[in-house]
């Protein structure tokens, strides 16, 4: 009896199920299997009871599982065929000389296939290609650094040099403790500095990553300064792109940073009369650094240079604004007056320590200005205009005298 049931199962799975899946005979399959099983049972043993013959519910489960396996295998074959076709297209594009990555995963292939247009597919492949090149360059640099480190370790095999290295490590750990102690003191007694983290919607993913990189540099510069600020990240959300990028940079050290992170607005944390929003679009120029004020810097990197975004936000909140006096101290070249976040941190720390604008504005990139000026720019422009008019006047007189001489010579010749 058991051998007959096993044989019947094999026959149904090998012949009946594939035939039913191809021709859509799912409804008529179960009565056929029931009659087959009952007729075999009756022929072999007429004395067997109905409970010993066969369980129809179990047979239904077996038949359904077989049909599911057949449908799953068919869908897997379709996916594999589409993926293979996509890989062939990529190989054709690579042979044609287009920028295509060498290694591409199945998820990337699926996103490539989901692109709505051909131009979108090209852009996505170019992005993957550039990403792969960056990874290769990073690996090459890591290998070069490792080789240099090994060379320096081989050269520093003497005892004196090893003693120096141990002293340097001890000095570095002591300095880290000293920096941490300064920042801990600034959290209690230091002047607050606010970074506005509400510009995620105005930037792309790449611009957010650049912003976080500049903020990491700013935090390190502040930690190493003599009198650091108490940094506040306001309007900061845990599920934002800012948070994800910070976790990539700091990892486990993110929870140990001596800074204040809050999702509240700075107007809810500090009084409005003490807040000053630093923006390059402000009509007011910052004359001196005020130690009793709380300065706000917008955490935004915009390659398209969206003017007026931070100024509009400050006006909406009713805050005082200020801009750095770049034109007062620098002969400005062509270009926007927007600075990076780490440059702003260097400038503010220098102003806080010394109050010297020339020393602070040394951190402005040299390509953006010609040099420093001793007088205000509007006075220099007046003097330059006066010199130009005098030069033009002298030239006009010289031209008149030369014309008079030539005219007199012509008259004498006649």
Automatic annotation (TrEMBL):
CDD domains: Trm10_MRRP1 (cd18102). Residues 179-371 form the SAM-dependent MTase TRM10-type domain. Gene3D superfamilies: 3.40.1280.30. GO terms for molecular function: tRNA (adenine(9)-N1)-methyltransferase activity; tRNA (guanosine(9)-N1)-methyltransferase activity; tRNA binding. GO terms for biological process: methylation; mitochondrial tRNA 5'-end processing; positive regulation of mitochondrial translation. GO terms for cellular component: mitochondrion; nucleoplasm. Its main location: mitochondrion. Keywords: Coiled coil, Methyltransferase, Mitochondrion, S-adenosyl-L-methionine, Transferase, Transit peptide, tRNA processing. It catalyses: adenosine(9) in tRNA + S-adenosyl-L-methionine = N(1)-methyladenosine(9) in tRNA + S-adenosyl-L-homocysteine + H(+); guanosine(9) in tRNA + S-adenosyl-L-methionine = N(1)-methylguanosine(9) in tRNA + S-adenosyl-L-homocysteine + H(+); an adenosine in mRNA + S-adenosyl-L-methionine = an N(1)-methyladenosine in mRNA + S-adenosyl-L-homocysteine + H(+). It is an enzyme of class 2 (transferase). Its EC number is 2.1.1.218, 2.1.1.221. It is found in: Mitochondrion. This is tRNA methyltransferase 10 homolog C.
